[in-house]
User: Fold these one by one.
Assistant:
Number 1:
Amino acid sequence: MGIEVVVEGLTKSFGKQNIWQDVTLTLPAGEVSVMLGPSGTGKTVFLKSIIGLLKPERGRVLIDGVDMVGSPERDIYETRKLFGLMFQDGALFGSMTLFDNIAFPLREHTRKKESEIRRIVMERIEVVGLLGAEGKLPGEISGGMRKRAGLARALVLDPQIILCDEPDSGLDPVRTAYLSQLLIDLNAQIDATMLIVTHNLDIAATVPDNMGMLFRQGLVTFGPREVLLTSEEPVVAQFLGGRREGPIGMSEEKDAATLAREQLSGGGDHAGQPRTVVPQLEPSPGMPVRQGALRRRERVLGMMAQLPEAARTAIMRSYSPAGGGVTG
């Protein structure tokens, strides 16, 4: 089963530019979480800070008793082996076949025999639906296939935490839908803790158990998906609605005067309209029940009293027999 990731008071700057500050959240073990945010809000920086590739100025990232910010480098290096990373572009070596790309972490970090490496690599290739393409070079296949090869490579060391950075970038809606289903099926099979960084609303609405959003150098919110999907917070409503009206501008946040003008001109006329929460994706037929979803149900039902009314309503609807939610 996956491992819980506890982020406490994380603050990161580059020179005088504050990227985000005092980010605190917990990624529940074995559940799928999504971090949303407009471009330039430091989502990738957040991923790199979790795995210890970037050093925040303040705060802690606790994984299995190790702080990825402040622990000795040796401990951080060992803990990093619990992770699988899927980068935006797949980050494949252009001169290597898909097989050799996917085998790379095994050859680099383990002493397994080639026969064992072949067995593991072919298993992962089958999981992501790339059987038959293992001899091809990255340049000979589509962007969607490169993404899946990157995912297969992230899986070969049996990670307990999987980080996906913009897994949908450059994909059309159909391939994004396939990828979304693949991520849910993967979670059902290996029960790893997953964090997906994206600004794709289809993935955000259908894949995660939990959602967060970064904006204005901070974490707007993080919690069960229904909290964010029903939120009246202006920046969340604007982002999920894909509208121009709201705090997010073309290059950065709008100032207070611009926002006030929008309100006066009726730019906030979408406010107060309840958004429908689409059902979360279920594992494909033949896949095991998602253990993370069962744990999440218990956890969320136990915190109902603390949640906004709109989120509570959406949760109860999803867990009613007609809502098609997880049974267990």
Number 2:
Amino acid sequence: MTHCAIAIDGPSGAGKSTLAKAAAKELGFLYVDTGAIYRTVGLAALRRDLSPSDETAVPAMLPELVITAGYGPDGLQHMYLQGEDVTEAIRQHAVSDAASRVSAIPAVRDYLLEMQRRFAAEHDVVMDGRDIGTVVLPDAQVKIFLTAAPEARARRRYDELLARGQEADFETILADVKARDHRDTHRAAAPLRQAPDAVLLDTTQLDLEGSLARLLSIIKEQLPHE
């Protein structure tokens, strides 16, 4: 049986996870948050007092990690590290930075590639990340590059952290967003870029409802019809 894959790529804070999750629910597809997998590796590095940029120590710890994803009745993805549900822990701001750094290590990307492809082989999926349409699922039936201006993305992240009860400084977050953009687009391993056959969706001027409506419209236009 051939399954359908929708690949959504884009920079940090573009709303990929929120929109991909909502689209998957609307379509009856499985949502796969690949960023959460990298966040889990980043969290593991921090917990072991390793530099997330250490290209020797981080790959060396990978065989010791037990990383799994589980799905509840609502279809939401939970991440587990050594059996512990770390779904909330990986959303800390420090873990976001660690995820960006570990994801720049080629050995980490290679290690996690098959895990991501296995999801798509077994389910109809909406998968989001930074190299889904270019590397992980280059044959995805639908590819979308989701983006927004750095200031808009920083504001959304700032509001999200405040809503979670965490302290946040907008200027610091904006600087981090721009620094992460530079790392993601300039890394040697699978840099962030728009696939040639991906549809561009800029949500700078759109609210959540408008962004989702436009995303679903693009998906339905691009999906193969029986």
